[in-house]
Design goal:
259 residues; six-stranded mixed sheet; alpha+beta
Length: 259
């Protein structure tokens, strides 16, 4: 089974690129972030025609998450991260795809930091850690995938010294991610590439992709039930180099069942 995460950066603008990638790679499960579309504007018919069922949590102009499943429709378990009933941002959705529990997330960027947006990021992270504690202990196989907006270590950013004050790399952000992983999660991409500079995001500016000036901010975390089934983890880097791309590349794991 191949499970992928892809910050699409606007599903309206990137739909042709998404459909091309789906056709080429045929992932079994896809977590999408940054739909940037209200709920009614999600291109369900086009996704269905590509062979995928979908659930989604849209929001006009910003945010938005979705889970796609090849040949079936995900069974929604919940939408919105628990812990703050007043939070209306569309950043989290959970579903079952067969026996696999999938949590798709788009963690806040948090810039400028310090400031209210950074405070919101850290509070959202605290809520994710609380939910993560429940999911990591599940008897079911669980994957928590998405754009975490955090570079966990210096290996995950092309020039660490330039990012020390950025919300994606500040000590508080990295400490929060470390707290989450210490619950017992396996960071799939780093586990399979322990010493490699491997990126999932390249800015549109200053020829970042051409210079490979990237960041690793898209992560797939596996709970202890699922981790033994991990066989590979990669980034479809070439997708970032295509016409009118997202600034992220699809990132995926191969899992060997049954589980």
């Amino acid at each position: 089974m191949r499970v992928a995460t892809f910050n699409i950066n606007g599903i309206g603008a990137r739909l042709p690129a998404l459909l091309q990638w789906l056709n080429e790679t045929q992932p079994d499960v896809v977590c999408l972030q940054e739909l940037k579309a209200p709920h009614e504007k999600f291109p369900e018919a086009a996704i269905n025609d590509a062979g995928y069922g979908a659930i989604w949590h849209g929001q006009k102009s910003w945010n938005g998450v979705a889970i796609l499943a090849r040949g079936s429709t995900p069974v929604e378990l919940g939408r919105g991260l628990p812990g703050d009933p007043e939070d209306v941002q569309s950043r989290y959705i959970e579903a079952m795809v067969g026996k696999l529990m999938v949590a798709c997330l788009y963690l806040p960027n948090g810039n400028p930091a310090p400031g209210p947006k950074f405070d919101y990021k850290l509070k959202w992270f605290d809520r994710l850690i609380a939910r993560g504690e429940e999911l990591v202990a599940s008897k079911k196989p669980v994957i928590m995938a998405g754009d975490y907006n955090v570079m966990p270590t210096e290996l995950d950013v092309y020039k660490p010294e330039r990012w020390v004050d950025d919300a994606l790399f500040r000590p508080e952000t990295r400490a929060a991610f470390a707290r989450l992983v210490r619950q017992g999660w396996t960071d799939a991409l780093r586990t399979m590439h322990p010493d490699e500079k491997i990126y999932t995001f390249w800015d549109y500016f200053r020829n970042a992709f051409g210079r490979d000036a990237g960041l690793r901010i898209d992560h797939l975390l596996l709970n202890p039930v699922l981790a033994p089934h991990l066989r590979s983890a990669e980034v479809d880097r070439d997708v970032r180099g295509r016409e009118k791309p997202s600034d992220h590349a699809p990132t995926w794991v191969e899992l060997e069942g049954p589980f």
